Each structure stands twice: as C-alpha cells, then as structure tokens.
Amino acid sequence: MKIAFIGLGNMGGGMAANLVKAGHDVSAFDLSPDALARAKENKCAVFDTVQGAIAGVDAVVSMLPNGAIVDAVYGADVIGHAPQGALFLDCSTIDVDTARKVTAAAEAAGYAMVDAPVSGGIAAANGGTLTFMVGGTDDAFARAEPILAAMGKAVIHAGTSGAGQAAKICNNMLLGASMIATCETFKLAEKLGLDLQTFYDISSKASGQNWSMTSYCPVPGVGPQSPADNDYQGGFATALMLKDLKLAMEAAQSVDADVPMGQKAAALYEAYANSGAGGMDFSAIIKTL
Ligand code: NAD
Hints:
binds nicotinamide-adenine-dinucleotide, alpha/beta, 12 helices
C-alpha cells in the first residue's frame, strides 16, 4: 500500500520504518528536519508539506503530540485533500472528544477513520511490538488491522469512535495509580525492616502482585530489568504519564466519574514533573516518597 506517515518523532520514526519493512511505500511529513532525515535513512520518501505526502495514498497514519495538533493537521491538510476512499489512522494519544470530532469530520467528507493509540514505548515502536487499541466502525477496523499489525504485536477493537482513546487513558490511569502504590509499598516495607528482595518474592506471589511490581519494578536490583536499574533513564517519561493522567481527569469530569485514586496520582505526578523530573522514567517517583 501507499501510506503517508505524519509525525515521525520518538514513536512515529520507528513505526514508519516498520511499515517500510512490511513492504509498504511510505511518504513522510514532519515539521522537524531531524525527524525527516531519520525517515529518509529508513527508506521513507520525505515531503515538505502534508499535502505532498498524502498525494495518491491509500492510508494516512499520524503520531502527533496532542489533540490540538491532530485536529489542525487533519482539518487543514488531510480531510478533503487525501484521495477519496483513503483510510485515516490516528495513533497519537489525545482526548476522546477531539478523536470523535476529527473522525466525524472525516466521515462527513467520505473517509473512514480510526483512533488507534498505543501501549508500549519507544522500544516497542522500534521493535514493532506495540499494542493498538482501536476505536471505529467494524469496517474501518477491518481495513486498519493489517496496517497496524505491521507495527505491533496486538491490535484490539475497543469499540466505536473514541473507544481506543478511552481504553488508553483508563489503562494509564490505572498504571499511574498502581505505580505510586507499588513505590510507597516498597518504601514502607523498607522502613519496617523488610529485605526488599524478600518482600518482592512474597508479594509477587501474593495478592499485591501487579504489573508495576513484576514487570517494571521501581526498586533497583529487584525484579526484572527495568528503568530503575538504569538510574530511571529511558522507559516512559514522567511528562507523558502526566499528559495521560490529565486526559483521564478531563474525561472523568466530562462524564461525572468519581476517580479519587486517579486524581491523587495526577496531583503527585504533576508535582514531580514540576520539580524538573519530566524527563525521568515515571517509576522514578519512588524518589519522592
Ligand atoms: P515526539 O515529540 O517525539 O514526536 C512527535 C512528532 O510530531 C515530532 O517529530 C514533531 O516534530 C512532530 N510534529 C509536531 N507537530 C507537527 C505538525 N503540525 N505536523 C507534522 N509533524 C508535527 O513524541 P512521541 O514520543 O513520538 O509521541 C507521539 C505520540 O505518541 C503522543 O501523542 C504520545 O502521547 C504518544 N505516546 C508516546 C509514548 C512514548 O513512550 N514516547 C508511548 C505511548 C504513546
């Protein structure tokens, strides 16, 4: 297929390269010359306008920083300019309302569109092992699935338009709260005189077990290799966790949902990011406890 890729940053760069490896003809657009240079190295054709990149394509994939940018790019340069019949796949993490609004505008102009945010960080984007959670019609999902499968290990239809974004922020709200709970638990265990490896051996096989503990342990030297073993570098940045928690709080407010643990996690991550730690892995919040 001929696919345009818009937004080839930390995540999009590797994703576009995986589409090329799968045999697709990828045309790239990004505002950053560095991102375009990397795209060229990865055998994408590079363009200096969105409209140049989308000419003649079967599909447009985007991986952009936020909802305002997604809305602006699709509104100004994609909807009404891409060939009729092209499929749009927005993989950015954005708010549910904007995802629905952009899809509705695309559909009104005769295009199919899915929201397809990802779980997994830069390593998964480079390695083609992302998990995609997809919102859209059955027909749009069926068309999107093979394209997404070239960039990930799992592609799950979450529901209608916006459902992918809803699943993403619900998952990450749970992750943010469970990471802080795991961090404070290890600190309490330490203060109570427990050996942390011994506590891990017990809790990882008891009812406190959770992903933040057994797949991403925030304590250096305990559990599998994680950013904690690399002085909290790499991994999933605190600033991105904060972004997702803010989206979750907005979404909760929009439907009048009571999310006290999510609210607390958002406040703690906001304070940590404001202390200058936005670039640290999100498990580094253990240092504040
Ligand atoms: P990034 O900042 O590295 O990349 C975004 C890219 O978009 C940049 O190259 C930027 O130049 C480009 N861009 C910005 N405005 C543009 C425009 N108007 N037109 C074209 N290009 C434009 O960000 P990232 O880490 O790749 O994240 C992208 C998305 O993926 C975000 O929505 C983020 O929340 C989500 N996400 C990131 C991670 C992660 O670990 N980094 C994990 C899951 C989801």
